[in-house]
Specification:
six-stranded mixed sheet
Length: 258
């Protein structure tokens, strides 16, 4: 696989027609699962007169009743701590993850099963591999490792790909700069603004990140990684390529990468 640009060549090289057929099957199955196991979705589907069998093409996605953040939050407030949205109960869950809470309200809480985490790691693996990361790399993840989902999925994807992980948990920025250099990290993951903060701290300490082993930065959590000027500044200060990712905390993983 190391010579392939694809993490999953069988799926990633499917003709568009076959890919959309696979997506439709999975969408229908997903809705069936939600209707059978989530009290919130079962009630909403009934209220809207929706049945998974109505999904005849991807264009029918507009028929599916959508869950808003406000509705999920309200459900958790009425039936704390998780509300009626989860499709897995406490007996089937192995972990809780939350949103960042940056909206000023309490964070959303999600229950994850073992299968959820296997899927989260797999989705991140597509991005990790697509960004050029390989088993020979050493990754430094500049992330606090709290209940916020953040880079947890990336951490497990790195392990799945076979990369040597250096978790950069809760510690001062200066200590992280030192570890990036001391461990010879070739990949660094952080938010775009924190990548700039790391570069600023390195400069203040007389350390030139452009002379380090870092070849790639995987950015997430903010839109700045897709702003050409900001991306160019990060790449100039690190002397490395920057890749952006975007996702949703509510589903636990990324959806796009570039």
């Amino acid at each position: 696989m190391a010579g392939s640009p694809y993490w999953n060549p069988k799926t990633e090289t499917l003709p568009r027609e076959r890919l959309e057929a696979l997506q439709l099957v999975k969408l229908r199955r997903h809705c069936e699962w939600a209707a059978a196991r989530s009290p919130w979705y079962r009630r909403r589907f009934a209220e809207e007169g929706f049945e998974p069998g109505q999904l005849k093409s991807l264009a029918d996605l507009r028929r599916v009743p959508m869950l808003t953040r406000e509705e999920w939050m309200a459900s958790q407030e009425v039936r704390p701590p998780y509300g009626e949205v989860p499709t897995v109960g406490g007996e089937g869950a192995i972990r809780v993850h939350t949103t960042s809470g940056t909206t000023g309200r309490g964070p959303l809480r999600a229950l994850d099963s073992r299968k959820d985490w296997a899927w989260i790691a797999e989705m991140w693996s597509y991005a990790v591999w697509g960004c050029g990361v390989r088993p020979t790399d050493t990754a430094y993840i500049a992330f606090g490792y709290g209940s916020f989902i953040g880079f947890w999925g990336l951490h497990y994807a790195m392990e799945k790909v076979g990369v040597l992980n250096v978790p950069g948990g809760a510690q001062p920025t200066g200590a992280r700069v030192a570890q990036i250099l001391d461990f010879g990290a070739t990949v660094v993951a952080s938010t775009p603004t924190y990548a700039l903060r790391l570069a600023q701290e390195a400069d203040a300490r007389g350390r030139d990140l452009r002379a380090s082993a870092v070849q790639r930065l995987i950015l997430s959590g903010e839109p700045a990684g897709s702003i050409p000027q900001t991306k160019a500044l990060i790449e100039e200060q690190w002397g490395a390529r920057a890749f952006d990712t975007a996702g949703m905390t509510e589903i636990g993983t990324i959806m796009v990468f570039e």
